[in-house]
């Protein structure tokens, strides 16, 4: 552990120091030539230099056998790591072996860490294998490197082979490996071990465990850990807000965010705002999103651009406030493909099909190439605006012009476009001609179009196709049953309901979200609700 602390101290010192004048280095060089000072005299100078200057001095010191020792190589390795100079690390590694200092555990650990920092796991494993008696720093470095490079199983295997007691950093690294494998049971075992073996709380380990539970979808354990933490920093709060939002518990994400702001335990950062804006977008909570936007505007350390700007743009689009969406879009300094795709998709979903097409043309003028998400917005816009010919042109251009292979969502947009235009036979022919097997949502789109246009002839064909299709949702089956019932085909409606019961499917009752004083409330449609606006 002492080795880790020393490395961090020296690396931070080197990072903060500005380059020293060349004349000063020349003076040191001259001093090396004229005197025979012991190595410690010059080793004391190395940590005070910038990484570049430290390596320049190292190059001069290695020419004089009396001016360097194993500490010299350690400082040089730290400097090369900060500069991500692999070739220099390899050179120092060779010098270490030739000079006979390789057996020093501190040099071995520094070499191991240098290769891990550069994601060179092959060389890192070679160094680790050459260490006769690895200490906790050695084990932690190799486990961390394996986990970071995606070798999660091997990282856990190394952890199980440890013959020394792991420290907090070791546990953080193995928890990261568990997270990569979604190994919930083993991650919980690590959590239990930390509670039994470590004294006191450690915010870094707690945050790693919190992130592990969130990414594994175990939100119950994440909430329990979050509530038990003695103190929580901005990473803790942000992880919890983001996990709840991504897990579909957007109303709970809002509650946690409000508790964060009101409690003052931590100040939200950019990632926190991106997560809470995502929750607002999912809930359609426009008032809360507007409050978050106004709060962001008071923070001079935040810039509405990049991820934060795109999150605001997405929130306003999904909350149907396209005036504010356009305003945010216009204020973005850097408009990337995500920004363009979001505003195009927002225009499409809010019924502004022609504006979406105009924005696409403007995007091309600005030299931004579309991606698969952009075309989902374009095809949706054509469907809502009844622009079938333009939609066909865009669909063909996806592959022919931009080399983007259509995915299931693009095919669903095409079927929806045909269906909205009443071209049901063309929609069915399109499905039959697809190079991949149509899934439930595609047949559901055709079914919905048949119901709207009163075409009962296709019900039987759709019913048989749905029985063999993948990804058929309970909503699609309920729609089919209700469609049969609306046509007084009760036997067919009951057959579909019987299938749903046999599969254990039950359609959830509908509910809506409303906002009262920026607080989100759920209305399930069963109880009457009256809202008196101010």
Description of the molecule:
The chain is mostly helical and 534 residues long. Helices cover 69% and strands 2% of the residues. The protein is built from 30 helices and two strands. It has helices spanning 2-16, 22-34, 39-43, 51-61, 70-82, 86-99, 105-117, 121-130, 136-148, 152-160, 168-181, 184-197, 203-215, 219-228, 234-246, 250-263, 270-283, 286-297, 306-318, 322-331, 337-349, 353-365, 372-385, 388-400, 408-420, 424-432, 440-453, 459-468, 474-486, 490-502, and strands at 512-516, 519-523. Strands 1-2 form a two-stranded antiparallel sheet. Strand 1 (512-516) and strand 2 (519-523) form a beta hairpin. Helix 9 runs antiparallel to helix 10 (152-160). Mean pLDDT is 81; it is low at 1-20, 36-42 and 523-534.
Write the layout of secondary structure elements.
Layout lengths: L1 H15 L5 H13 L4 H5 L7 H11 L8 H13 L3 H14 L5 H13 L3 H10 L5 H13 L3 H9 L7 H14 L2 H14 L5 H13 L3 H10 L5 H13 L3 H14 L6 H14 L2 H12 L8 H13 L3 H10 L5 H13 L3 H13 L6 H14 L2 H13 L7 H13 L3 H9 L7 H14 L5 H10 L5 H13 L3 H13 L9 E5 L2 E5 L11
Helix pairs in contact: 1-5, 2-4, 4-5, 5-6, 5-7, 6-7, 7-8, 7-9, 8-9, 9-10, 9-11, 10-11, 11-12, 11-13, 13-14, 13-15, 14-15, 15-16, 15-17, 16-17, 17-18, 17-19, 19-20, 19-21, 20-21, 21-22, 21-23, 22-23, 23-24, 23-25, 24-25, 25-26, 25-27, 26-27, 27-28, 27-29, 29-30
Write a concise synopsis of the structure shown.
The chain has helices at residues 2-16, 22-34, 39-43, 51-61, 70-82, 86-99, 105-117, 121-130, 136-148, 152-160, 168-181, 184-197, 203-215, 219-228, 234-246, 250-263, 270-283, 286-297, 306-318, 322-331, 337-349, 353-365, 372-385, 388-400, 408-420, 424-432, 440-453, 459-468, 474-486, 490-502, and strands at 512-516, 519-523. It has 534 residues and is mainly alpha-helical.
